[in-house]
Amino acid sequence: MGYRFQRDLQGLENWTTERDVLDTLQDLAITTDFEKIPCRQGTVFDAWGQAYAVRSREPVFYMVERGPGPASLDSALLTQARALGVEVRFNSRLERLAGPGIFAIGPKAADAIAVGYHFDTTMPDGFWTICDNNLAPQGYAYLLTMHGRGTVKSCMFSGFKQEKLYVTRTIEAFRRLVGLEMINPRPHGGVGNFRIPTVAQSGAHPVAGEQAGFQDTLWGFGIRIAIISGVLAARSLLDGGDYNARWRRQFGSMLDTSVVNRAFYNLLGNRGYRWCLRYQERRSDPRAFLRRCYHSSRIKRFFVPLARRRYQSRRKDSSCDHVDCTCVWCRCGTGEPG
Hints:
Elements: E1 9-13, H1 21-27, E2 36-39, E3 41-45, E4 51-55, E5 61-65, H2 73-83, E6 112-120, E7 126-130, E8 140-146, E9 149-156, H3 163-178, E10 183-192, E11 201-202, E12 205-206, H4 209-212, H5 223-239, H6 243-283, H7 286-293, H8 298-310
Parallel strand pairs: 3-7
Antiparallel strand pairs: 1-5, 2-5, 3-4, 6-9, 6-10, 7-8, 8-9, 11-12
Helix pairs in contact: 5-6, 6-8
């Protein structure tokens, strides 16, 4: 469960709603019994090495471990599922599913990639980010450390063929700026797929998480939406409710806003990133600032169609055109926004 993450450190975002994400998970009867660090203070650097402090009253995000580790988010979910009597089968991929079920098999294309290393370290717990197109084109480089482990990566939205160059530059930058220490580094990479489907349905089956395209298009945070969409999909199977109406009501407007944010971010460049960092540091609590950025407004709704045309997923429609398809990999019915 979550094996592809290989003990990756990631962020469980906590800014898109005023209510804390851990309380939201508990409301959904999802366990929070996993290793986590509430991240209130950190540092963001611009392309010129200028540091901008992140200081928030409440956690901006929770740092968590993904993958097969004993204290990881995935292991906690697996333990909870088994305690409820769920049968979990590993190494048993289905090609077709004729009965009721939810499709949630992860990304189908690379709209962004995060490439770097996992490592051991004596560095203190913390998070650091660099907004610099020379390290992570149209994205950001990040360093996370928790309890003697670390993850450092370039999260890039373009320039994939030069990933080795950008990773090398990212390592050099963090060594220079914060004294990055890597012991026993292990290379690791992953992909992100962002899109807003017309319907998150494949035949009779609801589609959840990144397979549906549910992920923040600006920064690539997707854990929260994946869990919520899975719960909504399960409820729709149990009570016969309208899954598509539920996910649109729950987070559809946030997904629209994140596409607008991404379209504008792609236009900024390094000088624009610097202006945003200066503005945020002077004006407000970073969690409140980010929540405003993701809040739907009349002007952002106006820009949604333009943003969708400007930023389009690399994911293309697919191998099957059957209306009542049972193919797990099929994307029919999950219409592209155009």
